[in-house]
Amino acid sequence: MDTSANFVNSHTSAFAAAASLCVRLQQASSSLLQRKLKLGYNHSKHFLIHCTSRCHRSKARRRLG
């Protein structure tokens, strides 16, 4: 498990707030999370890394052939 996943697992309530904010606003950026949730740069960076890695893994795959 990478460090961003460990970080998010130890901060689940803050992660839920960040995720709901991003879904509600339909956008995500480090500065947005810093402003709206009063997070530091490192916290917001870890949330975004974790969200984007989960998002890329869950994409539907194109069928070949």
How would you summarize the topology of this molecule?
Blueprint: H1 3-10, H2 12-25, H3 30-37, H4 41-57
Helix pairs in contact: 1-4, 3-4
What does this structure look like?
This protein is mainly alpha-helical. It has one domain (3-57). The protein has helices at 3-10, 12-25, 30-37, 41-57. The N and C termini lie far apart (35 Å). 14% of the residues are buried.
Annotation keywords:
4 helices; mainly alpha; 65 residues; single chain
Q: Which spans of ≥5 residues are poorly predicted at pLDDT below 50?
A: none
Number of domains: 1
Summarize the amount of helix as a percent range: over 70%
The overall strand count is: 0
Q: What is the gyration radius calculated from CA atoms?
A: 13 Å
What oligomeric arrangement do these chains adopt?
single chain
Distance, first to last CA: 35 Å
Brief summary of the model shown:
This protein is mostly helical. It is built from four helices and no strands. The chain starts with a helix and ends in an 8-residue tail after the last helix.
